[in-house]
Write a structure and sequence with these properties.
7-stranded mixed beta sheet, Arc Repressor Mutant, subunit A, D-Maltodextrin-Binding Protein, domain 2, alpha/beta, two-stranded antiparallel sheet, 11 strands
Length: about 290
């Protein structure tokens, strides 16, 4: 008999998304040995190695990538079928906030996947700074919010539930053809307003390293900051995914101080248990987590 076990496929998907087996254990509510056994049986069924295991975690092989491409829509359809038969169609409206550090092309992919998998849900989206989105959620203006937070700080309000989505490096960048690091001259910085965590980080890291700087440009949002950087108006630190395709280049960290990682988090305010809205947001959260990764 041909076919795959859905729970084994779910374990594979979550292991790849989490990045390690130890991180997957609490997500799947399985012991380490039970989780490893599921993956062993899945690889036996596939007839190929699906994951490469190392001290750094796990990553899919070429065969694993091929299977993942089938597994994600299969699991989404299985979940949709379960909701349908339990009379839990995902309909209605939800308000989603998204940090402007999230690239427009990635946001478009996310919204397309949500529409494909949750066609009955009407979404309202709001793009803004992470601190503004968190405040809006505390005030009940948003149901969910995707924010960016620095690895070295935790500013999420205690009453909000937090789901980690992704982690990536922060980097120093400038325009491709700009030569802004001149000996004996202060580093020209292009920044977002003072309330931005990356503004504070850039200044504090340069201060700690004893490197003089001058704020040469302030932009109101990430798109404006990218434009200023491409125009050669200064140097900034940004998350790596915000840089691709923007005519920008990575600067040498031997010259500038090291930067921490940035984390993308999904925030959700507590809601009434077993309510239609609670179930709706739970499904939406899980769909976002899968799509985001």
């Amino acid at each position: 008999m041909f076919g795959f076990d859905l729970e084994q496929l779910r374990t594979l998907v979550m292991a790849v998304d989490a990045g390690s087996l130890s991180a997957t254990v609490p997500l799947r509510c399985l012991s380490q040995s039970a989780l490893s056994e599921q993956l062993r049986k899945l690889e036996e069924r596939a007839g190929q190695t699906l994951l490469i295991r190392s001290k750094a975690g796990v990553r899919p092989t070429a065969a694993g990538e091929r299977l993942l491409a089938h597994a994600r829509p299969l699991l989404a359809m299985a979940d949709a079928a379960w909701r349908d038969l339990h009379e839990m169609p995902l309909e209605g409206e939800a308000c989603l906030g998204v940090t402007d550090y999230f690239r427009p092309v990635d946001l478009a992919r996310l919204l397309a996947r949500l529409h494909q998998q949750l066609p009955g849900l009407r979404l309202r989206t709001r793009i803004g700074r992470s601190d503004e989105l968190e405040a809006a959620q505390r005030e009940g203006e948003l149901d969910l919010a995707i924010i960016m937070s620095l690895e070295v700080e935790r500013k999420v309000a205690p009453r909000l539930s937090v789901m980690p989505l992704h982690q990536e490096p922060l980097i120093w960048i400038s325009a491709l053809d700009a030569n802004l690091l001149q000996p004996g001259r202060p580093v020209p910085l292009a920044l977002l307003p003072e309330g931005c965590s990356l503004h504070r980080l850039a200044c504090s890291r340069l201060d700690a390293a004893g490197i003089p700087y001058v704020v040469s440009h302030i932009a109101s949002g990430v798109a404006g900051l990218q434009a200023a950087l491409t125009a050669g108006l200064g140097i900034a630190c940004l998350n790596a995914s915000a840089v691709a395709g923007q005519g920008l280049r990575l600067l040498d960290e031997d010259t500038l101080p090291a930067l921490p990682s940035a984390r993308f988090l999904l925030l959700q305010a507590p809601s009434e248990e077993d309510s239609a809205q609670s179930r709706r947001l739970q499904v939406l959260s899980e769909t976002i987590a899968t799509a985001f990764r």
